[in-house]
Amino acid sequence: MVAASFAEFAQQVLSGLASGGIYASLALALVIIHRSTGVINFAQGEMATLSAYIAWTLTFNHGWSYWPAVALTLVISFGGGVAIHRVIIRPVERGSVLRVVVVTIGLLVAINGFVLWRWGGEPQLLESPFGTGTVQFQGVILTRHEVGTILVALGTVGLLWLLFRFTKLGLAMRATAVNPDEARLVGVRVTWMLALGWGLAATLGAIAGLLTASSLLLDPNMMVAVLIYAFAAAVLGGIDSPVGAVVGGLLLGLILSMLSYLSQYQAFSWFNEELKLPAALLIILIVLLVKPSGLFGKPEVKRV
Length: 304
Fold this sequence. Notes:
This protein is mostly helical. It has helices spanning 2-37, 44-61, 66-89, 97-119, 144-166, 168-178, 180-185, 190-215, 223-237, 242-262, 276-290; strands spanning 134-137, 140-143. Helix content is 72%, strand content 3%. α1 packs across α9 (223-237), α2 (44-61) runs antiparallel to α3 and α9 packs across α10.
């Protein structure tokens, strides 16, 4: 009985980490843009949805294999992110923060409308590349998609760490995010670094969208809740901290999974799936009240 309970507990932990990996990918995209522009890209979820539909079109309508379709989708997403910054964001980024926020909200509406016009509102099936079977170890049973999601999330974080830590491009992007004025003085092309940041964020969002579409049904509004979870993860970890976004995403997935696991006990019997989203919003509220900078963020200091 104890062994069975431990296996069930471990299974919930790993399932929570799998969901948290998706939240972490999208939260990382939000943090990358926020560090460089100081705003939240409210269209990040719709951009991810559009990327998932592109991959579905390549596989379902044009007969592409999954991985080549994903590779092309990520390239298109990166190029689209760069284009959005150069054409839409750059002309308004020197204005007020509110102006940029309004533009991202307009972009959200425009992309959602385009997806509905082009593909309709009928849910579609995007099969998981990891198969539909299960993996069992020491009594813990996970779907292959959950295992694949965890591995993809860890691989993505590792590649980003290598990019920012060991390449000149990554160093230039970090310098642009920290102090764009000083970065210009040492020859960094700040506007292009910002555009590349948008491209990178769009790619991360595409990964989150593909993983979400494979675990659920592909739907024009499938990323609405995921975006809120990602925002909660970013706030929890620190809205300016890439490490915090990853830790926050995994921790949020773990918290929500544990609440679902504890709902079998009388004290937590009130919790159900419909309360996951309010729980994420509650976490945002608590973090903003108790520690606005998040777990890994640095408190903002202003001279007066």
